[in-house]
């Protein structure tokens, strides 16, 4: 009994000593530097995936859709691959087989700061959020600018490629196509029913449609952005001060300045 008591006490002591280190490790990923490291590792994996599969592949940043509270919705990174045969789209991408969405830390988020002006009025193409603009008070624009992709070619070079995510069964948002069991990207009905996590790119009015992949983004503090967003001056109050992060097209790594 005495020996058992000593062993239990020793284990308890090691656990207690180890907890601060564990908490420190977890907290390190809550910072911008930790998030950069996390994204950088994902980009390297996506580049390797493109070379292995010999098809266009990359990372998709997207929030789990939350109409009631878009600010609170968690943001994820998803490995995606180009697949015309399954999606039926020249720009069609689906979630990579065997991969799970990776949740970004709750304290930070990523944006490309570009959106379709036709979400608000007649227009086409994409424009940058500019100093003094207030469009981010629109939930669809917020969804658009926090949903973007970074794509690599089979040779491992980062490229600009049209991206339209769809479920792995290629089903669009039409009743005649029936349901899909894809648990990552899917039609609105399947996401709302809890089958999948993310709306596929068939909903322009919600800020989700085909668009070119990106070569840069920003990382923002979600608490600071929430305050700026609610004030109606999200860009001029906060986003304008952040560093734009660029990616080396030949190595797939984040360019550190």
What can be said about this structure in brief?
The protein has helices spanning 2-28, 32-53, 84-87, 139-145, 188-192, 222-231, 234-237; strands spanning 57-63, 75-82, 92-95, 102-103, 108-111, 114-115, 127-128, 148-152, 158-159, 162-165, 185-186, 198-199, 211-212, 216-221, 245-246. By secondary structure, it is of the alpha+beta class.
Describe the structure.
By secondary structure, the protein is an alpha+beta fold. It has one domain (31-246). Helix content is 31%, strand content 21%. Strands 1, 2, 3, 4, 8, 9, 10 and 13 form an eight-stranded mixed β-sheet that branches. The longest helix is centred in the N-terminal third of the chain and has 27 residues, at 2-28.
Which key features would you list for this structure?
single chain; 257 residues; alpha+beta; eight-stranded mixed beta sheet; three-stranded antiparallel beta sheet; 21% strand
Walk me through the topology.
Elements: H1 2-28, H2 32-53, E1 57-63, E2 75-82, H3 84-87, E3 92-95, E4 102-103, E5 108-111, E6 114-115, E7 127-128, H4 139-145, E8 148-152, E9 158-159, E10 162-165, E11 185-186, H5 188-192, E12 198-199, E13 211-212, E14 216-221, H6 222-231, H7 234-237, E15 245-246
Parallel strand pairs: 3-10, 11-12
Antiparallel strand pairs: 1-2, 1-8, 2-3, 2-4, 5-14, 6-7, 8-9, 10-13, 14-15
